[in-house]
């Protein structure tokens, strides 16, 4: 009797075990079915990216396409610019010696030519320089004549060779002194014509003339008549505004696309009317410390006195990409969330919604890193309609 009871108990436990296992399997199967993603959340395959337009939709939308090609595409960069004086077109006039302003010949706003007299400075120091030169010149002339006579006497064996050697050494010293005095006069700006007049004149006028080194306009005079000045003190500033330097301030991203020789359209800041055409002359290698921009330099002749140094201008730089790349019109680009997409024509009335990777977006073109191939056709009109139809197809499938 006990054996039968034991057997019945074992049989009941076995049946209960298998029934629980089957229920667990059933539950796990139900869980797996419930955790499966709905169609709207599944990753779309290639077929779900295709949009098939009906004949009516094709006639109503009239979608235009453009063929994708690898090209060097021209594009423009707009940047602010500031006008400065051009290199070698501005000059600070300073006095080389101490003295007093004896005469002022040109005033602010006056046009001057190279070599025109701007100032006369009366200076005792200048008078001493002229006196030293005249003494050295006279000594050199005396030693020259003496050496010539001694050479004749030596040839006639009247004078010894030692006397000739001594005369030659004294002649060399006199020549060196004369050249030194001449160099000092040249250093303070005295011309050869004036130096020759000193040797022919009877009296020394200790007045130094200051000349303009360039053509231009007197922007500012820093001294007045009768004012005492020290050596190297600024007297005036002359600007030649027939040519100016424009500095374009570029962001680092824009600067890497700009090269020397790119064309530039210059206009006033408040107006976009093109007034001057120029080219990039040079590009600074580093960032400007104050503006944190890359500076491109543009040297351009002025037109009717415009632009003037200190003025702000608007620059439109037309350049080309540095490498062959795929560029599509901006009209072809749209976004699905944060993903850039285009619609590629796959056949008559068939378009594929294609994600792409964009590197640059400019005024007219979008530069594509990946997602498109050379020769494919992309839609450039009614792109938003195609985007709406693609979403409608996904909803209909769900």
**Describe the biggest sheet?**
7 strands, antiparallel
The stretches of 5 or more residues where confidence is low (pLDDT under 50) are: 22-47, 394-398
Q: Structural class, judged by helices and strands? A: alpha+beta
Q: Measure the end-to-end span.
A: 65 Å
Would you write up a description of this structure?
- With 398 residues, this protein is of the alpha+beta class.
- It has four domains: 47-72 and 324-397, conserved putative lor/sdh protein from methanococcus maripaludis s2 fold (Beta Barrel); 76-88 and 241-320, Elongation Factor Tu (Ef-tu), domain 3, CATH 2.40.30; 93-123 and 206-240, OB fold (Dihydrolipoamide Acetyltransferase, E2P); 125-203, Helix Hairpins.
- The chain has seven helices and 25 strands.
- The strands form six sheets. It has a seven-stranded antiparallel β-sheet with strand order 15-14-18-4-13-17-16. A four-stranded antiparallel β-sheet has the order 1-22-21-20, covered by helices on one side. Strands 3-19-24-23 form a four-stranded antiparallel β-sheet, with no helix packed on it.
- α3 (124-155) packs antiparallel against α4 (161-187).
């Amino acid at each position: 009797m006990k054996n039968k009871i034991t057997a019945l108990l074992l049989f009941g436990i076995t049946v209960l075990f298998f029934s629980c296992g089957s229920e667990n399997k059933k539950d796990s199967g139900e869980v797996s079915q419930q955790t499966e993603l709905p169609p709207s959340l599944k990753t779309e395959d290639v077929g779900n990216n295709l949009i098939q337009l009906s004949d009516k939709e094709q006639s109503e939308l009239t979608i235009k396409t453009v063929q994708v090609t690898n090209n060097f595409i021209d594009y423009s960069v707009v940047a602010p610019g500031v006008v400065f004086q051009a290199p070698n077109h501005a000059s600070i006039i300073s006095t080389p010696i101490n003295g007093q302003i004896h005469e002022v010949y040109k005033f602010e706003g006056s046009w001057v030519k190279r070599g025109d007299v701007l100032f006369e400075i009366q200076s005792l120091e200048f008078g001493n320089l002229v006196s030293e030169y005249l003494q050295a010149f006279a000594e050199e002339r005396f030693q020259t004549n003496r050496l010539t006579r001694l050479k004749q006497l030596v040839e006639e064996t009247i004078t010894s060779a030692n006397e000739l050697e001594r005369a030659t050494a004294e002649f060399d010293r006199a020549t060196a002194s004369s050249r030194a005095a001449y160099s000092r006069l040249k250093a303070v700006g005295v011309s050869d014509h004036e130096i020759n007049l000193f040797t022919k004149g009877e009296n020394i006028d200790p007045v130094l003339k200051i000349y303009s080194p360039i053509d231009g306009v007197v922007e500012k005079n820093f001294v007045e008549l009768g004012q005492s000045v020290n050596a190297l003190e600024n007297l005036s500033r002359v600007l030649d505004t027939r040519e100016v330097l424009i500095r374009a301030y570029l962001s680092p991203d824009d600067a890497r696309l700009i090269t020397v020789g790119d064309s530039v359209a210059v206009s006033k800041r408040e107006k976009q009317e093109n007034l001057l055409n120029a080219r990039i002359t040079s590009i600074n290698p580093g960032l400007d410390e104050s503006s944190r921009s890359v500076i491109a330099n543009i040297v351009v002749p002025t037109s009717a006195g415009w632009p003037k140094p200190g003025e702000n201008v608007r620059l439109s730089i037309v350049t080309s990409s540095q490498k062959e790349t795929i560029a599509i019109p901006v009209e072809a680009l749209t976004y699905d969330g944060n993903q850039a997409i285009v619609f590629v024509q796959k056949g008559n009335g068939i378009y594929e919604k294609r994600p792409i990777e964009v590197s640059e977006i400019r005024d007219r073109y979008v530069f594509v890193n990946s997602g498109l191939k050379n020769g494919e056709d992309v839609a450039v009109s009614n792109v938003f309609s195609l985007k709406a139809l693609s979403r409608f197809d996904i909803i209909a499938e769900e």
